Amino acid sequence: MFTAQSLLFVPGHRPDRFAKARDAGAGVTVIDLEDAVPAANKAAARSAALAEFGAAAEADTLAGWALRINAVTTAAGIADLAALGLAAVLPPLLLVPMVESPVELVIVARALGARCPGLVPLIETPAGLRAGHAIGRAAGVVAMMFGGGDFSAELGVALAWEPLATARGQFVLAAAEARVPAIDVPFIGLDDADGLIAETRRARALGFAAKAAIHPAQLPHIHAAFAPTPVEVAEAAEALAAYADGGGQAIRFKGRMLEAPIIRRYQAILDAKDRMYHA
Predict the structure, then answer these.
(1) Tell me: the pLDDT tens digits for 102-112?
(2) Alpha-carbon distance 1 to 34, whole Å?
(3) Model-level pTM?
(4) Is 50 left (phi over 0), alpha (psi -120 to 50) or beta?
């Protein structure tokens, strides 16, 4: 089950940054073998990542680690799968980029067999978005991530909220249909905390469950934006109590109708609050 609200990426060819990234407080720390790593450094990054996972397993600190491989339609992705198949230790989560068909996830699952980690496909193209519901339903998928950088390049638009609003909405629907959490693309304005907070709040309101980060300084803002406010928590608790007192059936509450779907949302708010204080 995927419950993290944040993911932090760290380049695989920079093992000197692994420990700092892991200690930054992200829900999931992702060693990246794809976009952040130059072609000449792919092999070294792969070896460094697998060594880190081996050391983490020995120290019983493997939980919270993830790996983003290269697309399985590329030579680098095939090499990643081959190395993972021989590795003594695999991370708990595997991010698979540029997925356009559930067949790509079947390839990963068959290559790694019973040891296959939980899969997080990245939807980064219009073709992938069209197949999003089927991708999300593939065996082993525990969450889906919106790859806004590549998607914006495909559309020829800026990596900003408005140009990608339609795609984001369709992506969230696909994830909801597959019943897996939706992860939003990183915010690339490293010095724009207000912009990050605003975008994260919009993502949460749209239905995203988590947001990726590219710098540790972004994490507190992401966590704060996803955390239920005291007002939301108080309203949820009051609504649930009123619904229970009403016998668990539709009732009027503060001028609005309370029924099962609304109650599920209020319960999710309290669940999120509990995870925040008991992480």
Answers:
(1) 999 999 999 99
(2) 25
(3) 0.87
(4) alpha
